[in-house]
């Protein structure tokens, strides 16, 4: 038992929060700057390309919608990896990473849902269609919210992290099943009426701004994520300091 | 293990009818539907299988939060955790007992409620069969949620919120198997077999996750 | 058979409850853990039973008749709560635990009737557990220790709700257990009436844990 705990301690040293904070302090301005540049380029490209002759100007929603949907999924993957880190390596930074990622993921999922709905209005003539992809994203949104609710309901952060990690992994295993079942359900009830955006039908003209925007969104996610992690670490440090203060006062009281 | 099964079954019968409350809830939910959608028999026959499935889904989630919470409150959970039975097996047996006490009565009540919904014989048989195959899956995945929320004072609602999204596939394949049985072109077997596969998959994931969560949240 | 604990420390939340606790108990010996409220007695016992992870250190059962990977498997744990179902009769409760625990290799537990006799409550085992008074319930929880053999008993405030007669009875049970070569670890305020026991004094709050933050 002493050996692995020693190994864990060494591992913690390699990426301990202090070092992580120092790294964040150096990295985040660059990351944020790069994100801004990419957004500038991506948005410029997005608004200068010719609109689709069928969809008109609304096609530009795609440049926000698709990256947000992609991030909704990537964020869950990041959380699942963090959950593994929590359960297998018991790394405290992994706890923080999973907890910080959940609200960000929920936001991107919400953005994907709202833009999907805005896009759907002119396309389908209604704000919401129970289309397979939208529905899966909606279920994902519910899962994010459940995760946040669970995290908020527990007061001990270490235990909350471990238990949420189990939930995240169960959800991660389930996501492909949910996706598959929703697609099954969708083909059963309505034939595919959605304009396919993936695959070879997409032209290079749309692809370039889309790619730039996707990279910009991914960088935005990482910027937000490391900043949220930094905040969470600082929040825990404050909690520790407060506890120290409370205990110190208690001991002085005992002495007097 | 048989001892644990027998004890949990006895408890569910004796503790003021934990088993019957689920069925009662199921019947009430289904009985309320016609008041909402109107007494149109054709409409009821059409949506009947879906209503029965949704009712059964909600009813089987109803008692789940007590699955481990009751054990935790009287200290039994500590002793269950200490035995290397292993714990996954203990959780599995508790799930089986819970299903026998609350899930099976729902399956048995389903044909009767099917009559109220003006469903024909094929639809009733198909619904009952899919419920038999599908409700254990809900209990297994629900056990994971119950274990995750075991330490929370008001875990009941949270369990439902956490588990319902995960149970969507079960609902989809359960209902589509029923509709496949009553509508001609679609074959019944593929969705039904997927439902059975889901059941087996959840029978593994649920207890493993629940055992892990119970160990991690012990205090 | 020896129970050896080395350098145990444990945290709850962020508080370090105790650190660097070491002791060794041989078969036939008892350890009484003493200390004021909140000094970490219960936490120490739960760590020994494997219900809480130790922050550092180990507790092992050496030279046992059957090697165990986790100490908890060789232990009975009598906590604050009785772990008995109010709706079931005492007989059903005890029979369930006897069956579920199984005997640890090396010795065997007594049957349910005999266990109930041993705690001095013969004749009321057919009643639902919820009908019994608090003292009777506690005694029945003690009978649980007898129905399945475990070499190590971990007892958390075992006699808190009991009168003097029951305390004497319980001391007798523990002595008999020690006589069979068992080990007992008890946390208590009251003198248990055991003679020749080791004592471990817990001082309480060891400080705020050195966290990684």
From TrEMBL, chain A:
Its main location: membrane. Residues 12-189 form the Cytochrome c assembly protein domain. Keywords: Cell inner membrane, Cell membrane, Cytochrome c-type biogenesis, Membrane, Transmembrane, Transmembrane helix, Transport. It comes from the Bacteria. The chain crosses the membrane at residues 20-47, 67-89, 101-120, 132-151, 163-186, 206-228. The keyword Transmembrane helix applies. InterPro entries: Cyt_c_assembly, Cyt_c_biogenesis_CcmC, Cyt_c_biogenesis_CcsA/CcmC. Belongs to the CcmC/CycZ/HelC family. Required for the export of heme to the periplasm for the biogenesis of c-type cytochromes. This is Heme exporter protein C. It comes from Shinella lacus. The lineage of its organism: Bacteria, Pseudomonadati, Pseudomonadota, Alphaproteobacteria, Hyphomicrobiales.
From TrEMBL, chain B:
Keywords: Cell inner membrane, Cell membrane, Cytochrome c-type biogenesis, Membrane, Transmembrane, Transmembrane helix, Transport. This is Heme exporter protein B. It is found in: Cell inner membrane. The chain crosses the membrane at residues 12-37, 43-64, 85-117, 123-150, 157-182, 188-214. InterPro entries: Cyt_c_biogenesis_CcmB, Cyt_c_CcmB_bac. It is a multi-pass membrane protein. It comes from the Bacteria. Required for the export of heme to the periplasm for the biogenesis of c-type cytochromes. The keyword Lipid metabolism does not apply. PANTHER family: CYTOCHROME C BIOGENESIS B-RELATED (PTHR30070:SF1), HEME EXPORTER PROTEIN B (PTHR30070). Belongs to the CcmB/CycW/HelB family. The gene is ccmB.
From TrEMBL, chain C:
Signal peptide: none annotated. PROSITE patterns: ABC_TRANSPORTER_1 (PS00211), ABC_TRANSPORTER_2 (PS50893). GO terms for molecular function: ATP binding. Keywords: ATP-binding, Cytochrome c-type biogenesis, Membrane, Nucleotide-binding, Translocase, Transport. It comes from the Bacteria. Residues 3-210 form the ABC transporter domain. The keyword Ribosomal protein does not apply. The keyword Ribonucleoprotein does not apply. Belongs to the ABC transporter superfamily. This is Heme ABC exporter ATP-binding protein CcmA. It comes from Shinella lacus.
């Amino acid at each position: 038992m002493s050996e692995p705990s020693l190994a864990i301690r060494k591992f913690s040293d390699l990426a301990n929060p202090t070092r992580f904070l120092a790294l964040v302090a150096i990295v985040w301005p660059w990351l944020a700057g790069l994100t801004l540049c990419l957004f500038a380029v991506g948005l410029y490209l997005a608004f200068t390309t010719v609109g689709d002759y069928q969809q008109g100007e609304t096609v530009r929603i795609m440049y926000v919608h698709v990256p947000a949907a992609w991030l909704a999924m990537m964020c869950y993957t990041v959380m699942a990896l963090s959950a593994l880190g929590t359960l297998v390596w018991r790394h405290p930074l992994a706890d923080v990473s999973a907890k910080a990622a959940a609200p960000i993921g929920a936001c991107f999922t919400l953005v994907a849902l709202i833009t999907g709905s805005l896009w759907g209005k002119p396309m389908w003539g209604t704000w919401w269609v129970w289309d397979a992809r939208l529905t899966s994203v909606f279920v994902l949104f519910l899962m994010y919210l459940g995760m946040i609710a669970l995290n908020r309901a527990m007061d001990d952060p270490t235990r909350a992290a471990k238990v949420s990690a189990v939930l995240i992994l169960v959800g991660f295993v389930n996501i492909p099943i949910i996706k598959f079942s929703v697609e099954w359900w969708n083909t059963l009830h309505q034939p595919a009426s959605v304009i396919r955006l993936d695959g070879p039908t997409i032209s290079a003209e749309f692809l370039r701004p889309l790619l730039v925007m996707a990279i910009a969104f991914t960088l935005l996610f990482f910027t937000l994520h490391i900043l949220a992690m930094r905040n969470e670490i600082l929040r825990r440090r404050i909690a520790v300091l407060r506890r120290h203060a409370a205990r110190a006062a208690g001991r002085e009281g005992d002495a007097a | 293990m048989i001892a644990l099964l027998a004890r949990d079954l006895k408890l569910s019968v004796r503790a003021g009818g934990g088993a019957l409350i689920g069925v009662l809830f199921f019947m009430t939910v289904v009985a309320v539907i016609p008041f909402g959608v109107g007494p149109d028999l054709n409409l009821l026959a059409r949506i009947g299988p879906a209503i029965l499935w949704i009712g059964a889904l909600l009813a089987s989630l109803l008692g789940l939060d007590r699955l481990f919470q009751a054990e935790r409150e009287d200290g039994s959970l500590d002793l269950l955790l200490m035995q290397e039975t292993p714990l996954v097996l203990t959780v599995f047996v508790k799930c089986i007992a819970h299903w026998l006490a609350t899930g099976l009565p729902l399956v048995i009540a389903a044909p009767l409620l099917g009559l109220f919904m003006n469903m024909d014989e094929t639809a009733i048989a198909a619904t009952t069969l899919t419920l038999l195959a599908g409700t254990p899956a809900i209990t297994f995945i629900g056990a994971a949620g119950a274990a995750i929320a075991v330490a929370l004072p008001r875990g009941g609602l949270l369990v439902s919120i956490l588990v319902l999204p995960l149970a969507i596939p079960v609902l989809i394949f359960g209902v589509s198997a029923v509709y496949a049985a009553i509508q001609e072109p679609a074959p019944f077997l593929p969705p039904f077999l997927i439902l059975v596969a889901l059941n087996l998959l959840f029978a593994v994931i649920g207890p493993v996750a629940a055992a892990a969560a119970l160990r991690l949240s012990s205090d | 058979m020896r129970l050896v604990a080395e350098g145990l420390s444990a945290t709850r939340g962020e508080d370090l409850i105790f650190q660097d606790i070491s002791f060794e108990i041989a078969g036939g010996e008892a350890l009484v853990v003493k200390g004021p409220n909140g000094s970490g007695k219960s936490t120490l016992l739960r760590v020994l039973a494997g219900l809480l992870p130790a922050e550092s250190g180990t507790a092992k059962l050496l030279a046992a008749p059957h090697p165990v990977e986790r100490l908890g498997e060789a232990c009975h744990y009598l906590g604050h709560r009785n772990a008995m179902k109010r709706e079931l009769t005492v007989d059903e409760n005890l029979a369930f635990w006897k069956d579920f625990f199984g005997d640890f290799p090396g010795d065997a537990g007594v049957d349910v009737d005999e266990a109930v006799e041993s705690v001095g409550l013969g004749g009321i085992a057919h009643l639902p557990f919820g009908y019994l008074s608090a003292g009777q319930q506690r005694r029945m929880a003690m009978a649980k220790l007898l129905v399945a053999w475990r070499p190590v008993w971990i007892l958390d405030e075992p006699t808190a709700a009991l009168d003097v007669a029951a305390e004497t009875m319980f001391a007798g049970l523990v002595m008999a257990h020690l006589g069979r070569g068992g080990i007992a670890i008890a946390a208590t305020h009251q003198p248990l009436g055991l003679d020749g026991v080791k004592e471990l004094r817990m001082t309480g709050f060891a400080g705020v844990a050195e966290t990684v933050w």
